[in-house]
């Protein structure tokens, strides 16, 4: 039973609790004006209507803390420029602070496992174990602002995948393992010209270098892809991780994902693949930058089109952390349903990964909350609470 906070207007607020009043509360299925009481890091109760208790949020949105399942942002901090390695703990601390600044309260840090070591210009060096050690060490020390979980991105087209996966055990609490194959001509880069443009822009590769690199990857894939995919899926299951597919393109890819037991499809590249995922009960995740930009930077299906067809379940900030909040608001405004827009970055990712203690504003759940003001070119964060503590 919820507490009528308006009737407690003259009652003192305990030093051990926080009351946030007069907000537009984005609940699971509705947006209501009301108040929330936080006690010991949890949501104690909610109430509708005005209140004179606690902190007046002046009609701003109060939303659950955002949940990010797949972000390349840590890699950017580990290597801020090609070939420039940054100390891992410093990278994690900066990454954590950046995510907190854009309303993300829970992140699954996507760390690539599977490297290319014999092709010197590949820019696919090993870093997963040391990055994981930095995250876990800082997490144990209480040095991070938000919740961090590990997500291993298993690169099928690589030389060291099995060896690197063997470096992780149950004590690492791997929450997601995604099966990722960047073989040229397939999946995300089925249009090889898009892959060429990506590498030429990011790494400055010449045409001759790209020809050599593409030939190397094609030969490597032919040797290892089948065994690597099966080994990675088996390892993910053994670790108790949620399995995710990556860049499914056709129905056969989705069928393979379903056989492996995938529960999330990261960035399907075609409407056909997204529809097949929906039919198979696999949650479809798309990039928030794709939604905001109006299309994929790789020339694949637009997230907006999948949303219009009812095929979009989860959004990920991918390579731009600030995009997650922006895209949730965009979806909510365009669809006339702010609760639905925010569900893609809160409740849906929580449910897909078994986090039943967060993702909604409801009594008993973690008090991960974000105060958001609209009316500007981009939504503005005016306050954030993680486990009831204001950042």
Automatic annotation (TrEMBL):
A GO BP annotation: organic phosphonate catabolic process
Highest taxon of the lineage: Bacteria
InterPro entries per record: Metal-dep_hydrolase_composite, Metal_Hydrolase, Metallo-dep_Hydrolase, PhnM
Full protein name: Alpha-D-ribose 1-methylphosphonate 5-triphosphate diphosphatase
One of the record's GO molecular function terms: hydrolase activity, acting on carbon-nitrogen (but not peptide) bonds
């Amino acid at each position: 039973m919820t507490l009528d906070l308006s009737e407690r207007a003259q009652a003192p607020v305990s030093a051990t609790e926080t009351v946030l009043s007069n907000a537009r509360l984005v609940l699971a299925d509705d947006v209501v004006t009301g108040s929330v009481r936080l006690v010991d890091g949890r949501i104690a109760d909610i109430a509708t209507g005005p209140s004179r208790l606690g902190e007046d949020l002046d009609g701003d949105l109060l939303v659950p803390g955002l949940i990010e399942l797949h972000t390349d942002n840590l890699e950017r901090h580990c290597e801020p420029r090609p070939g420039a390695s940054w100390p891992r703990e410093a990278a994690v601390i900066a990454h954590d602070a950046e995510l907190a600044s854009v309303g993300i309260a829970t992140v699954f840090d996507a760390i690539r496992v599977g490297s290319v070591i014999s092709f010197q210009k590949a820019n696919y060096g090993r870093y997963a174990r040391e990055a994981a050690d930095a995250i876990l060490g800082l997490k144990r020390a209480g040095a991070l602002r938000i919740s961090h979980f590990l997500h291993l991105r298993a690169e099928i087209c690589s030389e060291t995948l099995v060896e690197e996966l063997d470096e992780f055990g149950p004590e690492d609490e791997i929450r997601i393992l995604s099966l990722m194959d960047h073989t040229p001509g397939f999946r995300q880069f089925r249009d090889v010209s898009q892959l060429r443009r990506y590498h030429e822009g990011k790494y400055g590769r010449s045409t001759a270098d790209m020809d050599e690199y593409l030939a190397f990857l094609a030969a490597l894939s032919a040797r290892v892809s089948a065994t690597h995919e099966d080994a990675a899926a088996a390892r993910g299951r053994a670790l108790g991780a949620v399995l995710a597919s990556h860049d499914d393109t056709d129905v056969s890819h989705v069928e393979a994902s379903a056989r492996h037991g995938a529960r999330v499809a990261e960035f399907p590249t075609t409407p056909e693949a997204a529809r097949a995922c929906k039919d198979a009960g696999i949650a479809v995740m798309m990039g928030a930058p794709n939604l905001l930009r109006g299309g994929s930077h790789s020339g694949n299906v637009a997230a907006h089109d999948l949303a219009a067809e009812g095929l979009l379940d989860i959004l990920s900030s991918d390579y731009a952390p600030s995009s997650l909040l922006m895209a949730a608001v965009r979806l909510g405004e365009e669809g006339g349903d702010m609760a639905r827009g925010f569900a893609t970055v809160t409740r849906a990712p929580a449910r897909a990964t078994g986090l039943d203690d967060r993702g909604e504003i409801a009594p008993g759940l973690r008090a991960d909350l974000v105060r958001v003001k609209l009316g500007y070119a981009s939504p503005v964060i005016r306050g954030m609470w993680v486990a009831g503590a204001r950042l």
